[in-house]
Prior knowledge:
Largest sheet: 7 strands, parallel
Order of helices and strands: EHEEHEHEHHEHEHEHEHEHEHEH
Strand content: 15-25%
Helix content: 25-40%
Amino acid sequence: MLVAVxxxxxxxxxxLQAARPPGKIEWSFHEFRLxxxxxxxxxxxxxxxxxxxxxxxxxxLELLHRQGVRHVALRCxxxxxxxxxxxxxxxxxxxxxxxxxxxxxxxxxxALLLTLNRRIHRAYNxxxxxxxxxxxxxxxxxxxxxxGIIGTGKIGRLAAQIFRGFGCHVLAYDTQTDPAWAQAQQxxxxxxxxxxxxxxxVSLHVPLFPETLHLLNExxxxxxxxxxxxxNTSRGKLIDTTALIAALKSGHLGGVALDVYEEEEGIFFEDxxxxxxxxxxxxxxxxxxxxLITSHQAFLTHEALTEIARVTAxxxxxxxxxxxxxxxxxx
Length: 331
């Protein structure tokens, strides 16, 4: 069976090839993203394999369907870039990897916060230049701080437990609560407004749906404690970037750590070091000394990439045999 893989990087190729069942899958790797314009590159393929910034809208799906593609395999958890209603109407199966490694993302959440708080990135650059001054590198203890976890799925729960390990008080907000887990981990569920008002650190761990778009906006950010920090390793569009910049400029926020960005498509995962960055809001964010941004790399561990490749390849084999997708992966 032929699989057209879009938006690929060297690590994608290495892990997918390693996971390939012998003689089962022929990979056709493309560095460009899938869209209605690039869909003809999937001609002859049984399945397409896509990532978070591929644009799998109705027009794209229609072209894939005409070319005989039966299956859209997401090698990620998020699926807001796929028109599921159109896929269903066309009879295309859509699968994802819902839990490749929640530890990877939860741990990166803490890595971002600790790096930002203790100015490790700035200290590293100074020492490389033989500047051993400590001026401007003062951080704060996590111990005793109140952390608000928005979203208590697998990643949010692990992040909460890690913060508890640092001796933090943890508040949580979710539309679906788990009182037994919260009691065992000494986590307190509360409403969103109370969490924002009481938390020193707010960490986002929810998927992007219409109801979570701009969850943090001008009004909700204004409710946060002066000097509070935001960490987002989930989806960029959970935060209204314009409101975020305004809160940073006013000094209302103490710091922001992002692994995702509202308009990251076409920017993240690529090398733009030799050109002028055209996104004015991202350029502005990069000027703040209390903002730390990584390029959507929270998932990037050996364990996560291995699991992504295993589940993706497994689903491709199952769907092309007219067998059910792996448990919990079909949308």
